[in-house]
Amino acid sequence: MSRITYFLTILFLTINSILLSGDVDVKKEYGFVGTKACKKCHIKQYKSWAKTNMSRAYDILKPNERTEAKKKAGLDPAKDYTQEADCLPCHTTGFGRAGGFNSLIETPQLIGVSCESCHGAGKEYTKKQYMHTKNKEYKRADIVKIGLVSPITSEMCTVSCHNEKSPFFNEKEPFDFEKRKNQGTHEHFSLKYNHD
Ligand code: HEC
Ligand code: HEC
Ligand code: HEC
Fold first, then answer.
1. Residue 69 CA: which ligand is closest?
2. I need a surface site. Which of 2, 113, 123, 187 has the fewest CB within 10 A?
3. What does each C-alpha distance from 149 to 35, 64, 113, 118, 146 come to in angstroms?
């Protein structure tokens, strides 16, 4: 066997075994559009969200922000944490995922815990044949298949961010989904159309 055939055979076998072992995450990634895109149609939710800690989640990683809280949690208040891979998964939108937060310069629309952190990456479901002013009565089940997250559950919040990996996790204060849903996300307005 020539060296090149030998090399190609090994490569083929390795790729095959990786694929068959199931270690590769083949879950579909839909890509993110950023808050401005959602704001266009959901100005009320946007304005309300903009006042929450969720929208500020990136900014508080900057030096001299939340100094007392950082000291208490054993963090360095003078340090810039805005590029720390240890912090970004819970303080930006889609960090480490396809089309997700990458850097402030490249993806300024994905800082903080924003619309798509909770509602799912929106590149696909916001196309005009789906959730759109041209299709106000879209079927929810159709867009859930292409990235919309609904319903949002308590487990999603605790599995992704409100857990012991956070320096501010307090096990004495269990995560109160109902309370947080109303105070932490944005004010809720009833939908006009039927999507069932
Ligand atoms: C071009 C307009 C448009 C854009 C852009 C848009 N939406 Fe919507 N969205 C709608 C319409 C229309 C509805 C249905 C409103 C109703 O029934 O009152 C809706 C409903 C929703 C709902 C309710 C879902 C349900 O059926 O349970 C959520 C959540 C939502 N949008 C989030 C988002 C997010 C997040 C983004 C950005 C990624 C976004 N929207 C972008 C038009 C838009
Ligand atoms: C696993 C997710 C997660 C990681 C990782 C994480 N955080 Fe957070 N962080 C949170 C959550 C959730 C909160 C809100 C806590 C609450 O109110 O329940 C928070 C809150 C904060 C606050 C505000 C505290 C206050 O009381 O005002 C600061 C500052 C902060 N984080 C900094 C950091 C820094 C710096 C890192 C990296 C060293 C980091 N976080 C890593 C989830 C995380
Ligand atoms: C921290 C999580 C979170 C973030 C961030 C968030 N939402 Fe929501 N949103 C929710 C929850 C929870 C509901 C209630 C519906 C549910 O349980 O699925 C909701 C409901 C909605 C609805 C349905 C109508 C309503 O007012 O309840 C729309 C539209 C919506 N969100 C748009 C947005 C937009 C636009 C943004 C960004 C500006 C955003 N959301 C950011 C959690 C979030």
1. 2
2. 2
3. 16, 35, 15, 7, 9
Counted domains in the chain? 1
Domain presence at residue 176: yes
Q: With a 6 A CB cut-off, is 152 part of the ligand 3 pocket?
A: yes
CA 16, CA 11: separation in Å to the nearest integer?
8
What is the structure's pLDDT at 5?
63
Is there a domain that residue 95 lies in? yes
Q: Which H helix or E strand runs over 3? A: helix 3-21
- In single-letter form, the type of residue at position 10 comes to I
- Cα(168) to ligand 2 centroid in Å equals 5
Q: Is 66 in the pocket of ligand 3 (CB under 6 A)?
A: no
Using alpha carbons only, how large is the chain's radius of gyration in Å?
21
